[in-house]
Amino acid sequence: MATAGTSARRARLQSTDLLVAAIALVVALRLTAPDLLSRPAVQAWSTVFVAVCLQALPFLVLGVLLSAAIGTLVPPSFFTRVLPSRPALAVPVAGISGLALPGCECASVPVAGSLVRRGVTPAAALAFLLSAPAVNPVVLVATAVAFPGDPEMVAARFLASLLVALVMGWLWTLLGRSDWIRLPEQAPGPERGRTATFLDSMRHDLLHAGGFLVVGGLTAATLNVVVPRAWLDTVADSPVLAVLVLAGLAVVLAICSEADAFVAAGLTSFSLTARLAFLVVGPAVDVKLIALQAGTFGRRFAVRFAPVTFLVAVTTAVAVGAVLL
User: Fold this and answer.
1) Where along the sequence do coiled-coil regions lie (predicted)?
2) In the chain, which ranges are continuous DSSP H helix?
């Protein structure tokens, strides 16, 4: 338990340090090399970076507030009361509940673990884990704002993400084994009021997700300014390679789902289908989610669930993109 707590503190410190380091670097350059910041390439880079972060920040904050409020106010017995007892029927109900119970990826994993502890079938818990951060209203509105000229991206993201959640839930009912999931024992902690729990949850999610947003903004700005346009065009012109590159980028960047649409919108060299793959893969499987899933459900679960989710997410995004985009 101490090791897990230490890792969590380190991850939170590293994510917030990214923002502090970026600000410190800009201030230092402004004082020591003002001419450098006035160069066109640097100004273009900073414009893209600031635009991505500022556009995404309100949605990130709103998503964190809703997630913290739901985690504090929704009683633990809610899901066991509303979900059908049959796994095949519980999966779509849990998947659709992501519309009403939004949360970021960081929150959905422990919530899914607590659902399994309370007797909810793992298939339904996993469907909720995948749908909640991907199809909730905050994410859909953010996607609409990020792609004002392409409203079909909202429908495509919703449909593809929901299908991924349902397919993975039903696959678990067919192929999943109970011994693949090993939930860690939870030591009883001190009783805390709802207000303190709400503030702690909001502070944790905002600091953690904010750091990854900075990483996404830095990457989008760098791809648009530093990476040679010819290289980007070569990758983007290949439909298969473009999808695989952005899907892999989504796994590595691990951007919060409330903010990833603004990063995807900045990748203008790539097709809408490739950017849809970025938006579908990110909330379903990325490096931080794999770590969280391994810590919550065990390594045997993570090494099986993450690769299959990646394949299902990419395949579904391409199929939905071919129809709607």
Assistant:
1) none
2) 2-32, 34-37, 40-73, 78-82, 87-96, 105-117, 122-135, 137-146, 152-175, 194-225, 229-237, 239-253, 260-266, 272-284, 287-297, 299-324
